[in-house]
Amino acid sequence: MHYRVTLEGESGATSEPLTGTFRTAPSAPGNVSFTWSGDVVGQGWGINRDGGMAIMGAIADARPDFFLHSGDAIYADNPVPETQKQNDGDTYRNVTAEAKNQVAQTLDQFRGNYAYNLTDEHYRRFAANVPQLIQWDDHEVVNNWFPGESLAGQNRKGYTETDVNKLAEFAYRAWREWQPVQPTEAADGRLYRKISYGPLLDVFVLDMRSYKDPNPNAWAEENDGGILGAKQTQWLIDGLKASTAVWKVVANDLPLSIVVPDKATDPKDGGPKSMEAVAQGDNGAPLGREIAFSRILSQTKGVPNIVYLTADVHYTAAISYHPDKAGFQDFSPFWEFVSGPLNAGAFPQSPLDGTFGAQYEFVHAPDEANVSPAEGFQHFGQVSIDGGSRTLTVHLRDAKGAALYTKELTPA
């Protein structure tokens, strides 16, 4: 499908027409291809003056039916300086903008972060030609946030507003204004939702941020919903069990078993010991947020062909899960695939929690922290479903689109 858009201002002035293309969802079984990744313009690595955000052009060149954005579409808490020193000693030169001169604390500053990304020619080409399914994570607001959090005493540079709920209110409004999301798609009018893409695929887009409990609760022995909230947890269980699609993809913006400490509230900074994602590094029975996912995995163990896709950790990986290797064993084997970042710092691999029997089958990550986009280790993933055999194939790709790892999954 082709489209043409003309914008009209209050004075009656009109813009030059903009054109683009998109594909509609199939009504009959047929080949499906989509890409996913996350983490855009993070750690001070902005639009490169010497090439832009080229990875976004590589995603457009892959011609996916749609792109699943796994969160951190902006880094509202990361200003972009004119230059930044790379680990290899070279200087990275950023395109700058007023909205990226400071952390975002006003509605206009949050809006400006989204506008900044669209000043890149590769990003504009991507946005004009690839439909998107969007979820949010932490940096749309502030690093590692959870509802009700206070930034007071956390040594967060640049913040005069310490009430995270107030920041999140501005961030959510800007997200809704700038992202291609219809409120009617969401199960509760906000963020989490199921997108059916023909008879072969259902995508369950999670919100692992809005209903999150405090990060210091990672070791709690009782937890009602934890990272998803009780209502969303049950929605996912019911939705997976009721799905008639061959493949059920769960878009979890935070990984299930990669251990992600919350350094913002680390004891060294005067805060309690905390964890940001689901796992906490204890290989035994489920604790904290793992309790909700133990319910999900247990109650859907009879549902075939579930795959989890995530980003967040700034490297790419394939992770297998098997009850025979797990501290908690009441589930069926499955896979989780990780991708990213898109134009942000790349980081070394993190350890895995063994509660659900997670094992790395492939990892592509740097040895040093915060490797710039110009130094490599930028990634996106591509999923293809064959309309005839119904086989699902995952390719983990580099910034130029070359496949680093391929896994073929046969439907049950």
Give an overview of the whole structure.
- There is one protein chain.
- By secondary structure, the protein is an alpha/beta fold.
- Helix content is 16%, strand content 21%.
- The radius of gyration is 20 Å and the shape is globular.
- It has helices spanning 54-61, 107-117, 121-129, 164-178, 230-242, 290-299; strands at 2-5, 18-21, 32-37, 66-69, 83-85, 91-93, 132-134, 193-196, 201-205, 247-251, 306-310, 316-321, 334-338, 358-364, 379-385, 392-398, 403-409.
- It starts with a strand and ends with a strand.
Number of helices: 6
Radius of gyration: 20 Å
Give the helix level as a range of percent.
10-25%
Largest sheet: 7 strands, mixed
Encode the helix/strand succession as letters: EEEHEEEHHEHEEHEHEEEEEEE
The neighbouring-strand order within the major sheet is 8-9-10-11-13-12-14
Give the low-pLDDT segments: none
Beta fraction: 15-25%
Main attributes of the structure:
single chain; 412 residues; alpha/beta; seven-stranded mixed sheet; six-stranded mixed sheet; 16% helix
Briefly, what is this?
The protein is of the alpha/beta class. Helices cover 16% and strands 21% of the residues. The protein has 6 helices and 17 strands.
Q: Strands, helices and their partners?
A:
Elements (H helix, E strand, L loop, with lengths): L1 E4 L12 E4 L10 E6 L16 H8 L4 E4 L13 E3 L5 E3 L13 H11 L3 H9 L2 E3 L29 H15 L14 E4 L4 E5 L24 H13 L4 E5 L38 H10 L6 E5 L5 E6 L12 E5 L19 E7 L14 E7 L6 E7 L4 E7 L3
Parallel strand pairs: 3-4, 4-7, 9-10, 10-11, 11-13
Antiparallel strand pairs: 1-2, 3-15, 5-6, 8-9, 12-13, 12-14, 15-16, 16-17
Helix pairs in contact: 1-3, 2-4, 5-6
